[in-house]
Amino acid sequence: MTVTDTRQAIDAVWRIESARLIAGLARMVRDVGVAEELAQDALVAALEQWPESGVPDNPGAWLMAVAKRRAIDQFRRQERLERKVTELGRDLETSSAGDQPDLVDVDDDIGDDLLRLVFTACHPVLSTEAKVALTLRLLGGLTTDEIARAFLVPESTMAQRIVRAKRTLAKKKVPFEVPRGPELAQRLSAVLEVLYLIFNEGYAATAGDDLMRPELCAEAQRLGRIVAALSPGEPEVHGLVALMEIQASRANARVDTNGEPILLLDQDRSRWDRLLIRRGLAALAKALERSESPGPYTVQAAIAACHARAATAEETDWAEIARLYRELAVLTGSPVVELNRAVAVAMASGPGAGLELVDQLTEEPSLARYHLLPSVRGDLLSKLGRHAEARAEFEKAAELTRNARERAILLDRAATCEAEGATG
Amino acid sequence: MRYMMIVKSTPDSEKGALPTTEELTAMGKYNEELVKAGVMLDGNGLAPSSQGARVTFASEGKTTVTDGPFAESKELIAGYWILDVKSREEAIEWARRVPFGSGGVLEIRKVAEAEDFGDNFTPELRETEEALNEEVAKRRQG
Questions:
Q1: Strand (E) positions, chain B?
Q2: What average pLDDT score do residues B18-23 get?
Q3: Is any Cβ of chain A less than 8 angstroms from the Cβ of B82?
Q4: Where would a tag sit more exposed on chain A, N or C end, judged by fewer CB atoms within 10 A?
């Protein structure tokens, strides 16, 4: 093996082992920041020794042994220091028994440790930005530079964000544990939110972006699968995994050769990734099996699955989609979901039925500046042959949108309505 | 990116010899590792080539069908995994951990896929989805 080969092999080992390593160490030292430093120390030792000795047969155990040794050294040094402090007459009682590191059984229950790490990285004392950065760093094993590139910020900014996040966790004495009881549901939903945010950040990437951005989708999918394997009883985890896998299955069909986006219903379905669809549908089945009343991710996944199951756009089960949007609207109380439902109802039962629902939303204050409301309304009106009204709606939508390309499309539709109104 | 780990046939696998309980346990544990690491997309063992066939294409769309078994066992495939990994090296590192005994051979091949993740949906659909995500997240917090 050349030095470069070994370096790449070490990167691969790090990707596989780092989260488990940090998680195991965090339980020992009860500080995620310290645990990460110890793991990094072990990585440095590997970089020094493996080019000579070769990659060990069990690299994970090797890294853990080195890191553990450092932890014990550090602890002894600290103990000596504390003893000196006592000799100087100070009070040692300040550190409670709970702060003593747990040096045994580090290799047991790695899964539990990993789950503790997930919940710690997404702890509510942290800002959303910090949760995202820490999750990618501690669980994804991404470098600070990679995370910075993915989120289009300078490396120094991202480094600071991570340092501050770790300091916050230490300062607020966030316990390294999996929350229990009623807290669990809320905390889990925060974890899922972080993962979906990472996924969407990658999904929003455009052609010219750094390759690290689309990479975020794969990372979120992988982390989702990990959390699903760690807490298989939680339906919404499977729901989120299903949603991400099915959305990602369309990645290759979303744009034409000129990089122009293609509408879901116009996509070449033969380019959808069957393996991801199959995985998504299997995850959705798990979510539904485990939930009495499906949560929002599961319902969104079920909607995505309706599209995935339809061999052609015409075969889409719009009645089922409309029913699912109804379910989602009840869960979220969101007028935007209601608007989506109206579109599905129009597809299932005709533009008149859809329009009835849309008309109920026109008084909704939160949608007053939302261009898709008049855009959808205009579309339904034009299908009903009410061209003059449709035109006014398209013009209103064009005024509200911030996207130039979209404005052009809307004004074009307004002009078509005017022409049709004149001839019809 | 995806890599396929291809298990090469052996005279034993071609004979349809069943794995021992220990081998099965070790393989189960390995597969669990893959699942827990979020990298396992798919995987299957294949029955001996005696249960398969070969279709050979001649000119003008003429085909010949040859029934198995086939002789050259080292060139045959006995099973596969499909892994979702970040690099070739990560695929190799996972391959190194497969609990095979002496003589086992694995081949690692990259699955060809469109590299660029491309642009978004149309702005309309994209924004609907974004707004939807925001809404859902907001309601959940509130």
A1: 2-8, 40-45, 53-57, 63-67, 77-84, 106-110
A2: 90
A3: yes
A4: C
Q: Are A157 and A148 in contact (CB under 8 A)?
A: yes
pTM of the model: 0.86
B114 band by pLDDT with thresholds 50, 70 and 90:
low
Cβ-contact A300, A340 below 8 angstroms? no
Band (B87; pLDDT cuts 50, 70, 90):
very high
Mutual orientation of helices A351-359 and A335-349 as an angle, nearest 10°?
160
d(CA A162, CA A129): 9
| Closest chain B residue to A336, measured at CA | B132
Q: How far is A163 from chain B (nearest CA, A)?
A: 25
- The answer to whether B87 contacts chain A (CB < 8 Å) is yes
Across the interface, of A202, A226, A370, the residue whose CB is closest to B37 is: A226
| The token pair that represents A379 in the structure block | 């579309």
Judged by phi (left if over 0) then psi (alpha if -120 to 50, else beta), residue B68 lies in beta
Give yes or no for B83 touching A (CB within 8 A): no
CB contact at 8 A, B95 and B82: no
Distance between A216 CA and the closest CA of chain B, angstroms? 11
Q: How far is it, in rounded angstroms, from Cα A275 to Cα B4?
A: 13
Sheet of strand B40-45: strand arrangement: B40-45, B77-84, B2-8, B106-110
Restricting to B residues 11-70, those with a Cβ less than 8 Å away from any Cβ of A are: 35-39, 41-42
CA A250 to chain centre: 17
The reported pLDDT for the residue numbered B121 is 40
* Contact state of B122 with A279 under an 8 Å Cβ cutoff: no
Give pLDDT < 50 ranges for chain A. Answer: 90-101, 103-108
- Touching check for A95 and chain B: CB below 8 Å? no
The Cα-based distances of A186 to A262, B64, B87, B137 in angstroms read: 36, 62, 35, 12
The pLDDT tens digits for A371-387 are: 999 999 999 999 999 99
- How would residue B91 be classed by pLDDT, with cut points 50, 70 and 90? very high
User: Is A404 near chain B, with CB under 8 Å?
Assistant: no
Model ipTM over 0.85: no
CB-based contacts of A242, cutoff 8 Å, min separation 6: A280, A281, A283, A284, A287, A297, A298, A301, A304, A305
